[in-house]
Amino acid sequence: MNRITNQMINNTMSFNLQRHQTEMDRLQYSLGTGKTVNMPRDNPISTTNQMMYRSRMTEIDQFISNIGEGRSRLEEMDSTIQSALRIFQRLRVLTVQGANGIYTSFELKEATATEINQLLEELVAIANTKNGVGRPIFGGHQTGTEDLPNPFVPVYQTLTAGNQGDAMIGVEYRGNIGEVKREVEKGEYVDVNIPGNKVFWATNQILTSNKDVTGYAAQTNQTIRIDGTEINVSAGDNLDLVIDKINNAGLSVRASMGGRNNIILETTSPHQIWLEDMNGGTVLQDIGLINSSFPEPPNNISPTVTVGGMSIFEMVIQLRDDLVRGDQELVGGRDLGLIDMGLENLSRHLALVGARQNRVDELEKRAEYTKTNITELLAKTEGIDYPETIMNFKWLESVHQYALAVGARSIRTTLMDFLR
């Protein structure tokens, strides 16, 4: 038989009362904060899940922010391309009128040339549109520096025909082909720009090298890049192998052999071809496509190359000059056809932007739905059940009061109590 002393009874009562108070304090803290876990040691598994859910919530919030920023870029591109389309519709009206012989007098021709010049200036201004932070929306990765603020640089010359004065005779693209992407989910990206060398082009471009490369063979393993896609050329590859590798690279560019043992590149969709020799290689220079003294794009095509195809700016300049000369046949035939091709290319890119906008809208809906689910999971893992917690607190409070009452009756008076 164990001997029970008053000290043992006191210790047991104090232990139980302390345990009740500790548990009551925990429940009171949970009621005050609304959380089930106060310290990681309270529930390691629940703590791990909460950290995972909160990390996921942070990711989703960032994805939603990226989607919103991407939508703003796409909306700006949409409105800008629509502005260019309205200008082209007006140009088409002027072209049809010019082909029908409406502009018979020199004064009318001069007035038409003046209007076309103004429309051309506006087209260049549209192509150089900048976003809210001052970056060109059609310049690829170009940031708009002080030395090169715009991706499209017009070239002027004094023209006497039609009394046009200083008129635009060409436009050079100085941007790049960089694609701006936004991450909208883990490992999922959406393009939120289209480089200007695609949007503002009217016809397929054809580059014809005039260099005879009979017997050409690559001296070393090299890499070329066409429209941003890298193509590996092995040592010993002849021109036929180089052409096959270009055609099998999945590009919107087809390569072929010319009748003078030269190479010809032609786009399958309207855009300006982008050529680069990578890491000090010379393949494109050796076959006569790139200027060896200025190998970096843009505008690095060798001066010996015959270039076919037009940007929409060159097309409008040609239309203006044909109207001033009064060449109705060219205006109604060639120029009208080019205007329609430019309209088609702009419309195609407008549709592409619209498709991306629709995708972005669906991505945002999906992200919001995922966020709602994660919020519910976090609430179930982290939050308390208030009715149940209050009930447990009241029950523990009653037990504590009973323990105090029982302890008061269990601890009897001792001899020292009678000696007072």
Main attributes of the structure:
single chain, 420 residues, alpha+beta, f41 fragment of flagellin, N-terminal domain, four-stranded antiparallel sheet, three-stranded antiparallel sheet, 10 helices, elongated
Describe the structure.
- This protein is an alpha+beta fold and about 425 residues long.
- The chain has two domains: about 55-200 and about 310-370, Up-down Bundle (f41 fragment of flagellin, N-terminal domain), CATH 1.20.1330.10; about 205-310.
- Helices cover about 55% and strands about 15% of the residues.
- The protein has ten helices and eleven strands.
- The protein has helices spanning about 5-35, 45-100, 105-125, 195-200, 240-245, 285, 310-325, 330-380, 385-410, 415-420, and strands at about 150-160, 165-175, 180-185, 190, 205-210, 220-225, 230-235, 255, 265, 275-280, 305-310.
- A four-stranded antiparallel sheet has the order 8-9-5-11. The chain has a three-stranded antiparallel sheet with strand order 7-6-10.
- Helix 1 packs antiparallel against helix 9 (about 385-410), helix 2 packs antiparallel against helix 8 (about 330-380) and helix 7 packs antiparallel against helix 8.
- The protein is elongated.
- It starts with 5 loop residues before the first helix and ends with a helix.
- The mean pLDDT is about 85.
